[in-house]
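Open question from group meeting: does this chain pack into something compact, or does most of it stay loose? Before anyone orders reagents, we agreed to write out a predicted structure and look at it together. Recording both the input and the output here so the notebook holds the full record.
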Amino acid sequence: MKNIEKDLSLALLYLSGWEDEIHNKQEKIYRSWKGYKFDVLNNLVVDKMIRLTRESKSVIMTPEGIMKAQELIEKINAALGPTVSQGKS
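Structure tokens returned:
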């Protein structure tokens, strides 16, 4: 059950996230709100799918986390039909 919860949380973090610019840099990052169980978020940090920040109420998704979330959404769409929007790129 823990892996399902972790995978679904990662997919939801991605679907509810947004691209943001780092201040004073030309770098872009992908953020999402921290509104998930802390133990799940901590496991995603250990797996290097997200980074937590103390200064912000959002998490930063790593490139690996974004790729994994996209793969999970594709699997969900294959299992349920095209019901989950993957409007992010």
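Observations to bring back to the group:
The two ends are 29 Å apart (CA to CA).
Residues 2-78 form a domain with the Arc Repressor Mutant, subunit A fold (CATH 1.10.10.10).
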